[in-house]
Amino acid sequence: MTTDLTMLRRSIFLFLFFMASAVIAHVMTPLQVPREGGKASLAKIIPKEFGTWAADSTSAPVVVAQDVQANLDRYYSDILTRTYVGAGGQRVMVSIAYGEDQSRTNQVHKPEICYPAQGFSILSERKGYIETANGSIPVMHLATRMGRRYEPVTYWILIGNKVVRGALEQNIARISFGLDGAIPDGLLFRVSSIDQDAQRAYAQQSRFVADLLGALDPSVRARLIGSIGTVPAE
User: Fold this and answer.
1) Which of 68, 85, 102, 152 holds its CA 20 to 30 A away from the CA of 111?
2) What is the CATH number of the domain that holds 154?
3) What distance in Å separates the CA atoms of residue 231 and residue 225, rounded to the nearest whole number?
4) b vs e for 47-62, b when ≥16 Cβ sit within 10 Å of the residue's Cβ?
5) pLDDT tens column, 16-43
6) Is 1 within a domain?
7) pTM of the entire structure?
């Protein structure tokens, strides 16, 4: 009986929370938040070579079905996908997707949704951080598998100038901007590699991210990690 009452209270709370969010979204007329640092294409501002890493020019471009491409065009205005090879032959796949409108119907899709849609199973997921010279970046780690292919994934989402991870943080950030009468833009930064050892892959991906961010101009870096490293920590 106590368990049923607790679940009922929780359901009522969640219902009221989302109803309030819907009312706020309806009565407000948000304005688009301009992107600082310009809108140069990701392909131009992300270097093909930095540190000990270089883009693999032999990698074939990914070909997607027309319906999938239509969805990508709907949610994102700029997408960059590359595979980088390190000095030791290690390979890291990078996907960066930018969308100008992060309203509820157009928000970037999380890998927790995209990977299963492509046939992958999510073996585990956990929150973590990547330590860089520019600050600590909150990220999500996913261990995924499709058949014999093990693909650990690390990602974060930038909403406006705030880095978030997971659905809850993403929605809270979006609602926060909405309360200020603004529609933020958004960016998904994802790295992955083929490796049965997820912890080893996460460590390698963290080194890659730190090396990349360290090679970027501050204005370009801000397009990927927002205010991290540019304002004092609260």
Assistant:
1) 85
2) 3.40.1000
3) 12
4) eeebbebebeeeeeee
5) 555 555 544 444 444 444 444 456 799 9
6) no
7) 0.77
